[in-house]
Write a structure and sequence with these properties.
Blueprint lengths: L2 H8 L3 H9 L6 H10 L4 H4 L16 H23 L7 H26 L16 H31 L5 H30 L5 H5 L3 H17 L1
Amino acid sequence: MSQEELANQLGVTRQAISNWERGMTQPDLEMLMKLAAIFETDLDGLMGIKSDIKEEPVELNLKPLKWMYLTQLFSLIGYFVFVVLSPRYEVSGIFIILLTFLMMATSVYFVFTHGIKTGDYTLVAGYDKRVHYHDSSLKKMAYITEFYCLFTTLSYSLIYIILSLMQLEISWLFMLLIVVFMIQFIGGILLINVKYRQEIFVEPSEQEEARVGMWIVLVFVSSIMIMVIAT
């Protein structure tokens, strides 16, 4: 990259770049951060500093997540088989609601489990690979988010199954539960994001840059709302 090309990206003169290279002047902190972003490194890497601070690896137990997902999956299968074979019951809209919960749980389970195991969170809504994250904090946030989503969908699935088997003819109750679920599900995810927002970024200034990925979150939330309303 020529001095002129770099100067244009930074919004300074070519002479300023030349002075930095010759050691006559030094860039300020704002310019250092811009340089680090252009050359895809951090401030330590830009200045040749090797940090001795290493993040402790975080070991998380994924078995509870697996069992919650499998419990929800086999609960739906068992409910469907029971309703089909029983002369007292018939397949109703409750099954569609349970299927919707399972679809949500499936997407969350496989995407977040993949991220936790491999460290690749590119499939997670809102993740921005251009910014720098604390791996341990991001891993904890992904684990808690996945645990919360699976626990919520499983709980409401079991509630709907029980109410259905009781043959309660209270349509407003089922609608009320959907509304409560939506508020709890989306609100919980937003609270988790707020809690970990300060911890997951290496550079606090990158929070604003990472927000460009939030449109994915809005699409995800909107699709859930449309699906539930249609059901």
